[in-house]
Amino acid sequence: MDSQSVEAGDYKAHVFSSSAELLEKLHEKWSSVKKKPFPAMYSSVYGGIILDPAMMVLPIDDHMVHRGHGVFDTACLLDGHLYELDVHLDRFLRSAAQAKVSSPFPKSILRSILVQMTAASRCKKGTIRYWLSAGPGDFLLSPTGCPTSAFYAVVIDDDFSQRKEGVKVITSTIPIKPPQFATVKNVNYLPNVLAQMEAEEKGAAASIWVDEEGYVAEGPNVNVAFINHNKDLILPFFDKILSGCTAKRLLQLAPKLVEQGRLKSVKTSNLTVEEAKGSAEMMFVGSTLPILPIIAWDGQPVGDGKVGELTMALSDLLWDDMVAGPETQRFHVPYYEE
User: Fold this and answer.
1) Cβ contacts of 114 within 8 Å, gap of 6 or more
2) For burial by CB atoms within 10 Å, which of 147, 230, 247, 335 has the most?
3) Mean per-residue pLDDT, 55-77
4) So which residues are the catalytic ones?
5) Measured on CA atoms in the order 242, 42, 58, 47, is the torsion positive or negative?
6) Any idea which of 5-19, 58-72, 207-221, 232-246 has the lowest mean pLDDT?
7) 34-157 — its CATH code?
8) Regarding the domain with residue range 167-324, which homologous superfamily does it belong to in the CATH classification?
9) How many C-beta neighbours within 10 Å does residue 142 have?
């Protein structure tokens, strides 16, 4: 029967009589799934690593769940190596400090947990994502009723690859986050979600935020970069937007193209929308992309409307760094079977 045709008086919510019955119901969802999309999770509430996807849950009274009081970050997993794990962890703890969320563990233990969780998952490609929350306790606004903060993490099995096809973007009409919140990687992503939905409704891959001064800011969960006709690589300043780890790594690697005479310079700067739309090439920069070429903005072609040669050269630089970069960038996970 169509649920919409059921009268309220006719609907009876099931009451689970035991935890065993509830567990059986939770496992129903995963019984027909051949490959687990989330092969491992860590929860400080449980105090360990979870391999059963049916049990990868959070307490509803967690302050992050009902008040959005938490931060998160991520790291790319490629060929059994965690890319820029320490850089992301450092930003994670900076975000936590700004959000006034204390960590139940020092950085060294957080790092060890993430490595052990990844090893237990046996996943070699995807991402790991992790959260610090004010923790469970009650449903009030203040976290004073939360006895201890909580740390959660999950391995996401994802077969991503280098992006070589161009996409279209739009200018978002959703208000941009103020710098205090935009510069902290927190779980309050409603503006990001609405900006992404707006883009998809208009047939675009994503949207671009413009700040109150008319300068280009960022995408809904990625940084944006431009190459002008003078062959300068330009990324917006990070003072009002999230400081992207991959974007900063791009700024470290791109001077190689300057040395080769392919780029003239690499810099961060304010860019007006008019200047940005007049660029020769445009791209998103993010962890699993690592570069996504942009070929049209608000229905107008960027440059010649094709994926740029320099955009792909930058993509190759980042992808090579992810695949075969220095050990300082790539941490080899000691999987248990090894």
Assistant:
1) 42, 75, 82, 85, 89, 128, 130, 153
2) 247
3) 97
4) 185
5) negative
6) 5-19
7) 3.30.470.10
8) D-amino Acid Aminotransferase, subunit A, domain 2 (3.20.10.10)
9) 12
